[in-house]
Amino acid sequence: MTDFLANVNANVNSTLSSLWSQISDQAGGAFGAAADPLQIQRTFTFLTLFGLSHSLFGSIFSYLFPKEWSLLVSEKKHKLFVATFVGTIHAITVSAFCFDLAFVNPDPQLEADRLYGVSDRAQLIFTISCAFFLWDFYYLVFLDDKLDFTMFIHHIVFFSCFILVQAPFIQYYAIRILLFEVSTIFLNPRQMLKMLGKSGILFKCLEICFGISFLLVRNIYGIWFSVDAILYMNDNMNKISASKNVVRFIIAANVFANGLNLYWMAVIVRMVTSSKKETKKVSG
User: What is the DSSP letter of 140?
Assistant: First the structure.
């Protein structure tokens, strides 16, 4: 029986490897290591874990806090509440791993070659994010009451990017771009408290930390690092063997991400300004 299962597993892996190699060849090799059965298994393992987190958190929260859960259900916010929790897990996980890989324990291969350096830790991080985007696709399309088209496009673009960088390609920059998720660590719990009608000290602290982290990580650091990545690729274009369309797509995605971040920052500033005006009116 053990031999039979081992043979089945070997045949499945061989079939997957052959199939994805053919797809990758048709795409000019752009998929690279993302076509590796190990990467596929990792992605679907994390996809399963995100799905389990969604189911378990909803059940546990409704059992421990029935009043709050009833409020969420009555306002039709329970699905978004649980999805926001799952997004927080993703943000904390990838932010911690990326910070460690970028600044604490950098991989010599990535440091030595910004274009084609590859790290198994980076590959693992990319599968976590790809799995999250797949799970959130499912939420946006099948569970959310109203499809958020902007987030849908956002997920398609960045799911594609984190598939492509597994080739490997510009992993040095990709793990740093994923640090954008740092601001989500503060945004999501803040949103969850808001859904529960909480607006105390913790809510205010999360709100301030979110604004500061968004400005520092996404706007200041993010734009500087994105420009550096584009200039580096442009200066080393003769060394890039990847399809020019892949390079164009990644640059366009980079511009798209920073454009969104600037737009969202403008929205945040507008909200803060409006809030201060309302406060003045009430106090006046």
Answer: I
Which among 174, 30, 25, 146 has a CA at the least distance from the CA of 79? Answer: 146
CA dist 167 and 72 (Å) reads: 43
Q: Is 169 left (phi over 0), alpha (psi -120 to 50) or beta?
A: beta
Q: How far is CA 85 from the centre of its chain?
A: 14
As a whole number of angstroms, the distance between CA 80 and CA 192 comes to: 9
| Distance separating alpha carbons of residues 180 and 159, to the nearest angstrom | 15
Q: Are 50 and 90 in contact (CB under 8 A)?
A: yes
- The answer to whether residues 191 and 84 touch, using CB atoms and an 8 Å cutoff, is yes
Distances (CA, A) of 168 to 11, 50, 113: 26, 25, 11
Q: Which of 160, 165, 261 is nearest to 220 (CA)?
A: 261
CA distance 222 to 98: 14
Count of residues in the chain: 284
Residues near 237 by beta carbon (within 8 Å), at least 6 away in sequence: 247
Convert the pLDDT of each residue in 93-143 to its tens digit: 999 999 999 999 999 999 999 999 999 999 999 999 999 999 999 999 999
Asked whether 219 and 124 are in contact (CB, 8 A), the reply is no
Closest-CA residue to 175 (of 117, 131, 230)? 117
Cβ burial of 224 (10 Å; 0-12, 13-18, 19+) is exposed
Q: What is the pLDDT of residue 283?
A: 54
pTM recorded for the entire structure: 0.86
Residue 146: which of 227, 80, 214 has the closest Cα?
80
Cα 70 to Cα 66, 81, 87, distances in angstroms: 6, 12, 22
